[in-house]
Design brief:
heterotrimer; B: 379 residues; alpha+beta; tRNA-splicing ligase RtcB; 2 domains; 7-stranded mixed beta sheet; two-stranded antiparallel sheet; 20% strand; C: 140 residues; Archease, Possible Chaperone, Chain: A, domain 1; 5-stranded antiparallel beta sheet; 2 helices; globular
Chain lengths: 94, 379, 140
């Protein structure tokens, strides 16, 4: 997967394939090494495929692998044309 | 929650205080307290009203609600769409902490980074604080399971291609989407009510253990945030107000100063955000920023994240007495199961300070204070 | 018949192998109980009926294990054995049978890891040379 560094704490996963938006990860260079070891960046890119996603599929520095959406993931969906996903919330609701 | 007490005020009675908390707040698989048994109708009210239900029952004061995200109640909750199974799981679980990474922690303010913001948040050096971390319990787990099952089928029907089945979803405006949002919001309200009930019992624990009146302990809610939620929020994008469904999974809302949803008291500093760390090190209080609003839909991190699997953690604790180790570090821990303590030991988590430094460095939150644990109860 | 745990950082997965689909489900139950408590200490005096339906074998496995989670959460029963019958229907699969175990007793049953839910993540059910194999992940 292609990952571009934007600044000290921001990393971009450029749009590719059917991604609707790009991925945006907040992390330090050191954290990125660790984050790259599980499939959570792939999950950030997977979320970017969902219909109606706005802005970017984002991940906070505590990102780790989750079911469907990564834990530490943020996604904004268009209120009319977007989708809602239980995997985007998780089992521990609220 | 902040208190009117300093660390030295409670230190001599710390063990009693932790014991009281542990007695008053059921943890682990323990059912809820027998003085809080709900029939289906009452539980349905909890799901509709959230934290306000508890306040109406005398558990808390109406001022508490001002300091809860969404005032402790999501509009659009549909208790009637919550399954019978979820009701059954929730019936005896209101006012229970749960297990795993859930906890109640007594802390003190160890460091202040931003004195102005700390004053606005009512925080001062060495002050005793209390953090509760718990959610919608089995009721919420069941709501999630029920709707994943429905959405796996629905996504295919709506022709949504999924790179991963667990990413299942449905259009927000579809019957499946609306049903999920209604049931999930009801589960979120259960979580708000759950923490409100435990807030009340935490206050009682302080009064009992320290022989104080309510105004002396003076436990006030600083803020209560969600971190596993999807809800409608309005953002200005390219000069246009748009209603978006924001999914935050292990992420926290972090609204900026002067946002209408930021409580009046914090208007000039921004919405408080609580970032729990592991039980041996520290947690953080942050505030939201303008940059978070414009860049991350008003969101920031949630916590530390695991470093070791539970099994690895248990392996590393073999032959060690974690409780003694923590006590030597000045942390009194009481837990329903020793397995949980091992799985949740400090080394099992990443250093939350590194996480917080990134969100501050990126400008999507600002550090206000660091809290250090002195008493913990766990499931 | 056997099961073997594998672990991610934040959850437990299990690989199950059995000679029939019914015993695959029973092994799944045993794996789940084994992660909850010391399974050898679970006595089998209590009997409950189960009756479930699902569209596919995969869904049936998840439904079934989630039913066990539900029974523990609502009635505090630990289950160690099952007698099950799975039948094909026009629109899926139907499971009927009895499960055996006992009520959780904090004095006798050490609790290991509580399970919140059984997920669809990496879910796999396959027929194999031995009979059936499956992979399933528990959220904890």
């Amino acid at each position: 997967m292609r990952i571009e560094q934007i600044d000290e704490f921001r990393w971009r996963i450029p749009r590719q394939g059917k991604m609707q938006v790009e991925g945006l990860v907040f992390a330090s260079a050191e954290m990125m090494k660790e984050i790259g070891q599980d499939h959570s960046l792939q999950q950030v890119s997977n979320v970017a495929h969902l219909p109606g996603i706005i802005g970017a599929s984002m991940a906070m520095p505590d990102i780790h692998w989750g079911y469907g959406f990564p834990i530490g993931g943020v996604a904004a969906m268009d209120g009319k044309k977007g989708v809602v996903s239980p995997g985007g919330v998780g089992y521990d609701i609220n | 929650m902040r208190s009117g007490l300093s660390r030295t005020d409670i230190q001599p009675r710390l063990r009693d205080l932790v014991t009281r908390l542990y007695q008053n707040i059921p943890t682990g698989i323990g059912k809820g307290r027998t003085d809080l048994r709900l029939n289906r109708q009452e539980l349905s009210r909890v799901l509709g009203r959230g934290a306000a239900w508890a306040v109406e029952k005398g558990m808390g004061v109406s001022e508490d609600l001002e300091y809860l995200e969404e005032n402790g109640c999501l509009e659009g909750a549909r208790p009637d769409l919550v399954s019978d199974k979820a009701y059954q799981r929730g019936r005896n679980q209101l006012g229970t902490l749960g297990s795993g990474n859930h906890f109640a922690e007594i802390q003190y303010v160890a460091e202040i980074y931003d004195p102005t913001a700390a004053t606005a948040l009512g925080l001062f050096s060495d002050q005793v604080t209390l953090t509760l971390h718990s959610g919608s319990r089995g009721l919420g787990h069941q709501v999630c399971s029920d709707h994943i099952r429905i959405m796996v089928e629905a996504a295919a029907r709506y022709g949504i291609e999924l790179p991963d089945r667990q990413l299942c979803c449905a259009p927000i405006q579809s019957p499946e989407g609306r049903d999920y949002l209604g049931a999930m919001s009801a589960a979120a309200n259960f979580a708000f009510a759950n923490r409100q009930v435990m807030t009340h019992w935490a206050r009682e624990s302080f009064m009992q253990a320290l022989h104080l009146g309510p105004s002396q302990a003076n436990l006030e809610v600083v803020y209560d945030v969600c971190h596993n939620i999807a809800k409608f929020e309005t953002f200005e994008i390219d000069g246009r107000h748009r209603r978006l469904c924001i999914h935050r999974k292990g992420a926290t809302r972090a609204y900026p100063p002067f946002h209408p949803e930021t409580p009046e008291r914090y208007r000039e500093v921004g919405q408080p955000v609580l970032i729990p760390g592991d039980m041996g090190r520290y947690s953080y209080v942050l505030v939201g920023t303008e940059r978070a609003y414009s860049e991350t839909f008003g969101s920031t991190c949630h916590g530390a994240g695991r470093r070791l699997s539970r099994k690895q953690a248990k392996k590393q604790t073999r032959g060690r007495s974690l409780l003694d180790e923590l006590e030597r570090e000045g942390v009194v821990v009481m837990a329903a199961g020793m397995a949980t303590v091992a799985e949740e030991m400090p080394e099992a988590y990443k250093d939350v300070a590194a996480v917080v430094d990134v969100v501050e460095g990126a400008g999507i939150s600002r550090k206000v204070a660091q809290l250090k644990p002195i008493g913990v109860i766990k499931g | 018949m056997a099961y073997r745990f594998f672990e991610h950082t934040a959850d437990i997965g299990v690989d199950i192998e059995a000679t029939s689909f019914e015993s695959l489900l029973t092994e799944g139950l045993r794996a789940l109980t084994d992660s909850l408590t010391v399974i050898e200490k679970v006595e089998l005096g209590l009997e409950l009926k189960v009756d479930l339906e699902a569209r596919s074998r995969e869904d049936l496995l998840v439904e079934w294990l989630n039913e066990i989670v539900f029974l523990f959460d609502t009635r505090a029963v630990l289950l160690g054995q099952a007698d099950l019958d799975v039948e094909a229907k026009s629109d899926g699969w139907c499971l009927r049978g009895t499960v055996r175990g006992e009520r959780y007793d904090p004095n006798r049953h050490e609790l290991k890891t509580l399970i919140k839910a059984v997920t669809y993540h990496q879910l796999e059910v396959r027929s194999s040379k031995v009979g059936w194999t499956a992979r399933v992940v528990f959220d904890i």
